[in-house]
Every structure is written in C-alpha cells, then in structure tokens.
Fold each of these.
Amino acid sequence: MNCQLMSVPKETTQPLYIDERRLQDRLRSLAEIGATPDGGVCRLALTDADKNGRDLVVRWMRELGLDVSIDAIGNVIAIRRGLEAGLPVMTGSHIDTVRTGGHYDGNLGVLAGLEVIASLNDRAVVTRRPLAVAFFTNEEGARFQPDMMGSLVYVGGMPLEQALATRGIDACTIGEELARIGYAGSKRVGMPAVHAYVELHVEQGPVLEAEGFVIGAVEGVQGISWTEFGINGQSNHAGTTPMRLRRDAGYVAAEIATFARRLAREMGGNQVATVGSLSLSPNLVNVIANRATMTVDLRNTDEQALREAEERLFAFARDTAAAEGVELTQRSLARFAPVDFAPELVQRIEAIARDMDLPVRRLPSGAGHDAQMLARICPACMIFVPSAGGISHNVKEYTAPADLRAGANVLLRLMLELAE
Ligand code: HGY
Ligand code: MN
Ligand code: MN
C-alpha cells in the first residue's frame, strides 16, 4: 500500500487495525432487533424487524459521515468520499435473516464494513478511491424467492418490476412491503458501478474450524437450484379407503423428499439436497392429504452434475405422481450457476492473511451470497471466518471474537489496497 497517496497524517504510519470492541458492540446491538427468546434473531426480509434493523444501520452509516442512498429495490449504499472521484471499492452483505437466524450471517459483513470506515475515520485516513458499504435487500430468500434478490437486481440479473411484483410465502409483494417499511428508494438500481467488491462472511460450514484455519479465501460459490412442487391428490377417509384406491399427496411428497436425499448420497461429491419446507392439506390425522406443497434445494459446485441432479429429481417426481394418480406442478424459485471469484483477489486474501500470520486456506462457498451477484459487474471476492461447529441458519451460530477481529482486519487491509 503506497502511503503517500493517502493523506495520512504522520502519526498514522503504524499499520491500521479495527476496533474489535466497537464491532462486537454493534453486532450485539443489531442482534437485539428481532431477537428471539432462544438467543437467535428473526428479521425476515422487509418485516418490521428488518425495517428496525435497517434504520439502526442507516443511523450508524450517517453517524460515520457516509452519504447514504436507498435504491428502488431497497438496497442501501453508503459512500465515503475518496481523494478522487470514481468507482468505489465496495464491501457489505445483508441484514435480513432466516427465521432461526444467528448474530453473524450477513450482519458481520455489513458491520465489519462500518468498522473499516470507523477505523479510517479515527486515523483521518482518506483513500484515493471512494469506499462503499452496502446491505442488499432479501439476501436470504426465506420470505421472498429467489435469494440474493436485491444484489441480483442491482447487477441487472432480474428486472426491477419483476422483483417488485414477487409475492412471498405470506402473499405480500416486495413492492408493497418496501413501501410499507419506507425503503422504496428513489435511486436507480445499479448505481454506483463498483471498482471491486469484498465481502466478509462467516463460513456457515465445518471446514475452517475442523482444519484449524482462521481465514477462508473463497474461490467461488456453488450452483443453487430451488424448486417448489405442488401435488394435488384426493382427500379421503384414512380408515375406509383401500390402499389401491388412494391418491395420496402426502405419500408422493414423502417419496420425493426421500428420493432427494438418496440422490445426493448416491451422486456424492459436493451434491447436497434439502427439503426445507413441506406442508400438507388438510393436515389431519385421519384424512388422506389431497394437497402437498414442498421445496427442494439442490446445490453442487459442478454445473453439469447439478443439471443431472435436477433431471433425475424431476423425472422421479413425475413418475411417482403418475403412478399415484395425482397431479404434479413445479416452479423454479431460484437457479444460479456456480460462480468463480476474481483469482487475483483470492490471492491477495491469502497473502494478506499470511502477512498477518493468520492460517488461511482456499475453499468454495456452500451458501449463496451477494458477492456472487456483484461478480457479474466487477472483480469480487469473499473472506470467510470459522463458524463454531459449522452451525448456521441456527440460533446457535457463533464465531469467536479473535476470528471476527482477524476477518475484519483482513477486510480492512484488502480494501485499503484496492482503494489506492
Ligand atoms: O440460501 C443461501 O445459501 C443463502 O443463505 N441465501
Ligand atoms: Mn448470508
Ligand atoms: Mn443465510
């Protein structure tokens, strides 16, 4: 990093570090919004809890002297001016959570970004390029699908009107909810364009902890395929209906769910399959279900293998439904091919970590992230820190303070490098 380019007063030629207590304080304060009795967080996208979380983070952004703008899909982009105008170096993530969310998924990336800004403010460091800290709307995709929706619209991967018209699992639309919580921004989506994007995130998996690494230099994100199946059979009496006369939607849903599991096991490699939601109607002990609605989440780092998994699942669902005499409908909720991050940035993450004596390894991301969308418009990368027990999307999600500090310091260094 070339100091004379930064108007850095003499006393700050020491290396810069983040203030971990301030970062921890912000993580704790944000986690109080939407806090659940079991110690977790529930801030589903565009709910009142999400609004309250947004308001708090926007307040912090303004207190840090950032120029805050809200775009038409509710993404919030906060800019710190540089010595020169031009495209900013951006960091960020999301602050919406799943229903059983923890304190770190998404939140760490946004608040570590604010901590980078605060650390630069403390030392009156002004970078050559502008810096930006963003949080994107509906990264989780739990209430409205697909996931990573705000960043997908930001990079032009989904038309704004289509996103605004998207109806969630509770029948509200994105557009209605953005207006209701006051985050239907006026700024055109996709502004500003970005020089480079760096996202700090918890790994949400077991690898770093199991192998004793502190930093993950993420090579890319695996492919994602979300499908919703609708199964229409015939309700009938559980006691009087002979097995040969049944058109049992519940049975077909159960067969599809166990097939998905067997398929992932049989394909091996990085193939994973999840049935995360399944509802039956009328959902009564003595009535054969006439309706089932379920989702299947398939992922693989290899696009070809993911397509094979989809084809086999869809064929099995069709055949099983036909054999049971029920009607099958299917709808894609999300479909993203695997994404590679910028190799030169992955290398910089490794080099910075090594320079700071932090054990680092490369790995793919099992989870989807906003960074995979930003990679469509600029060089993008991700820094991972360990998740205790590999747990996430679970109230027990935890990352040790030393690891949070390490990740945020690597983020600070890389952003300073990219901003010069
Ligand atoms: O589903 C995902 O991978 C992310 O948490 N939205
Ligand atoms: Mn996340
Ligand atoms: Mn998540």
Amino acid sequence: MKIGIVCYPTFGGSGVVATELGLGLAERGHEVHFITYRRPARLSHFHENVFYHEVTGEDYPLFEYPPYDTALTSKLVEVVKYHDLDLLHVHYAIPHAAVAYMAKKILLTDGRYIPVITTLHGTDITLVGVSPAFKPVVEFSINKSDGVTAVSKFLRDDTYKQFNLQNEIEVIYNFVDFSRFRKTNKDHFKKAIAPEGEKLLTHISNFRKVKRVDDVIRMFHLVHEKIPSKLLLIGDGPERRKAEDMCREYNLCHDVRFLGKQDAVEELLAISDLFIIPSENESFGLAALEAMACEVPVISSNAGGLPELNLHGKTGFVTEIGDVQSMADYAISLLSNEELHQEFRSNAYNRAKEFDIQVILPKYESYYKTVLERSVYKHTVD
Ligand code: GMT
C-alpha cells in the first residue's frame, strides 16, 4: 500500500505513535509518506520505503495567523496525486481531519477518491476538541472520515458522549517497540545517579497542567521521608517552574533531577524502580507503556484509559486523581518489599507484551484493508 501519514512532528505521544507506525509499515514493505511541517523527531534514518514532504506556507504581511491548514491541504493534494497514494492516515483530529476532508474533496474534482482514516489521540477530543472554538469542525470531519480509530476504549466512549457521531470508532491501542524499550544492564549509570542504592522514581511528560506534575512532587515528598530515594523528571513544559519551586519548598533539590527533554528515555527507564503518572486526563498513557516494557511498575491515577493499561495490584497501582497519600503508600509498600517489587516488574513486562508493535501494527494494516474495501463501494455509490 502507499500510505500518507499526517502528524505533529513533536516528541509527544501522537507524533511518536504516527512516526513509529509509519516506520513499522515501511519495514513491512509499504510505501510511507510523512507529511508535516518539520521532520518528525523519530524519523532520523534513511529508509528506502519512507518519504518526507515538508509543508511550507507563504509569509505575507496580511497573515497574522499563517494559514497552515491551507498549505497542508495543498501539500496533501500534491502528494496524493503525484505519488498515487491509496490512503491518508491522519493523527490528531485538529486540524488534520478537516484538512484531509478538504483535500479529498479537491481530489474528487479530478475523479480521484482518497480514503481518510483519522486516529483520535486524546486531547484532540477531551480537551481541545470539545472547545466551542473547534467542536463543529471536529464533529463534522470525524463524521466525514472513512475510518476512525481511538487509542483506548475510554477515548472511544468519551468521543461518542461528546459528539454526535454517525460512524463507528475502532479501538487500536498504543504500542511499544521492544527492540528499543527493554531492560538493559545500566548498573554503572544507576550508580552515578543513585550512589547509595537509593530507589529511583521516574516521571516523563510534557509538563502541562493535565499531567499534575505537582502531585508527583507531593507524592515523592511523602515517599522520600520513608525510603532513601531519588526522583527523575524527564520532559519540559509550562509547569516546570512550579515543580522546581515546590522542590525548593520541600527541601528536595538534592534528590530530584530535572533532566529536560531526552532522546534516549529507554536508558533512564532501564534504571528506574517505579514510574509515576498522576494525570488529570490521559487517553492511554504511552509513557507508562514504555516504562512497563522496561519492567518498571506504574503508579497511576484512574484518569481516562490508564486503568485499561495499568492493572491495579498487578502491574502497579491505580488511585483516584489527586490522591497523593495513596500513591505514596502504594509506592512505599512496593519499594520496601523486594519480592513483591520483582513480581510487579515481571507483571508489568508481560502486560506490555500485549501492546508489542508486532501485535498492534497488523491491526492497523487489517483496518486499512477494511476501510479501502468499504471506500471502493462508497465511491461507486456516491
Ligand atoms: O500526552 C500528551 O499530552 C501528548 C498527547 C499527544 O497527542 O501528542 O498524547 C496523547 O496521545 C498519546 C498517544 O496516543 C496517548 O498515549 C496519551 O495518553 C495522550 N495524552 C492525553 O490524553 C493527555
């Protein structure tokens, strides 16, 4: 198949899923065309089946808001036409689903029908998508997509609740690549970070409000009082300053390390003892899955799709959003019992195996086939 993938090129979840999916599809012999405004973070090596098309707009003094949607639409029309694509797969509804619909309509005037699949990732529905600034367009363009997938049952059900939809949403979970995310021996590295054998707690996010990084600090403060431990904070974003202030206030600076954005997160996960994700909203929690693949148990909130991934009392613990005391109690119980900790480590790994890229990628391929078959029929009856 010749597949066009539209995504945000950032470090964040939807961009990572889209890029890894495209690379996986290319490995399996498909021709994959990435179309976005910057080379995606994980698209670093040449691959004979991978193409990258950069969207560039025109600067003009009249444009206070450069019209990216228009530039992207034109690029989609060009790439579909000249590379003879079979399918467009857009990640994150805003603005990609509406842009793809527009491109589809333009291509139809040329007699070409390009099926569009939209993958909903989370905030495009739960936070931004429901805002009156976007809702009518999001609802319309989801309804006009030839196929729609969501990354968890929670997100599927929430989308049905929030929007008036006519089409069915297929759940295809996030996935992890075990050739990259696995527990490797990094003892020398662990010794440098935790020289006295302290336990290592890790949090990775974009430090937006929705991630509740302040809960991570509060929880760590309670754990630190009972267990010699260190906290690694990976990522960056608007809440970082507040988190730094809290560490000073709690006198924790010596044992909390702000590492900023990191490429090789797997090396940090490989030395971690516990992963913390107390989000207010989380459609799936890709970072938690990557931790589990590295045999790291997870303490999470019960937001969104997190309980679909993190099994309470098995792969980690799940608490109410904001229940910092329970999070700390669970962490202490796990970190002070080596046997239990080992059991949770292996449960986390086994659970992550269910989301192996080798298991999930064929689900996308088979969904593509279903949508293509359906679209041939749809086109002929339109
Ligand atoms: O976590 C973020 O805020 C980034 C966001 C994105 O769209 O890039 O991630 C969302 O998509 C990921 C991949 O499907 C999911 O694993 C995350 O749970 C989801 N984030 C939220 O729902 C907050």
